[in-house]
Specification:
single chain; alpha/beta; Nucleotidyltransferase, domain 5; 2 domains; 5-stranded mixed sheet; 4 helices; 40% helix
């Protein structure tokens, strides 16, 4: 009888599945997906955008520039001097050459500031420039 019990306990130990290698693989895959994921950078401020009937969603907009109601320019949650907009867009475009520039201008901001930002983006070599609007 003791032989039967000892034989039974060794069979149970041999049939147990070791989950350690599977957990290692899952952990490595998790790290891989976190590292390779692209994160959307926000401009850092809330802008009251105007409505447009022809507004379309833009899927891959990686360079977001915001102009608030006081005509201040914001990129990556930092207020930018108008003379430094071109350099910032060049830097961000070098990090992601496939990205486009989306300008989020407040409806109370001046068109002059919007045109300055658009000119800076074109001078930086980015010709895919869009203006953000709300769906009406």
């Amino acid at each position: 009888m003791r032989k039967a019990l000892s034989k039974l306990s060794t069979d149970d130990e041999e049939t147990a599945i070791d989950l350690t290698p599977m957990l290692d693989v899952v952990f490595i895959m998790l790290i891989f997906f976190i590292v390779t994921a692209s994160f959307v950078k926000e401009s850092g401020i809330d802008v009251n955008r105007p409505d447009a009937e022809t507004a379309q969603k833009k899927e891959r907009a990686n360079i977001l520039v915001a102009i608030d109601e006081r005509n201040q320019i914001w990129i990556d949650k930092r207020m930018i001097d108008p003379r430094a907009v071109r350099a910032n867009i060049e830097r961000l475009h070098a990090e992601n050459p496939q990205g486009s520039v989306v300008i989020q201008a407040d409806k109370n901001s001046k068109n002059e500031r919007l045109v300055q930002v658009m000119d800076a983006a074109r001078q930086a070599g980015v010709y895919n420039v869009s203006i953000a609007a709300n769906d009406s």
